[in-house]
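Typical record is below.
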Amino acid sequence: MQLHGQEHEVTVAFADVRGFTSIAEKMPPDELVRVLNLYLSVIIDAVLQHDGMINKFGGDSVMAVWNVPVASEGHALLATKAMFRAQQAMKDLQEREMALPRMEFGIGINTGRVVAGNMGSEARREYSVVGDAVNTAARLAGLTPGGKVWIGADTLAQVKEGITARPLEPLSLKGKQELVQAYEVVAISTERNRL
């Protein structure tokens, strides 16, 4: 496992809990972890069912990637379907388990060129993806309201036949000089582009 990276087109998704700090204030730590893991399990299952890879956890967030390290045809649509269905599955979970404390995730997805590979040092390394497409997905997730999925324009260009999305007002993302166009996913097609 040498330290190196290669350029690939990928689709990256971030899912972040909305209002996690205030939720954490009101729960004992062991209960907080139990509840968070229930919700994360729903997201993880959806990612794996749609050929994605969980890349890392960040406490109250999860990052998933498609098309590396294994190629997946239609990765942008796979990612969008996975995350849209994860949101639906979390709502179903809340309806089934009325006593379950509510957590809502904002999910951001973006497609683009990145460098993927083993990063870190000889003593400690991990497989990761790095690039503007990753940063944009993370920034989108930070702005997406709970229960929603927002995608970037490059993702939309690859999935528009398989989903219904509505354009948002151009967004000012931290670290980006120009406004970014994003879209809210409102439905997944069941007739076309089944993946």
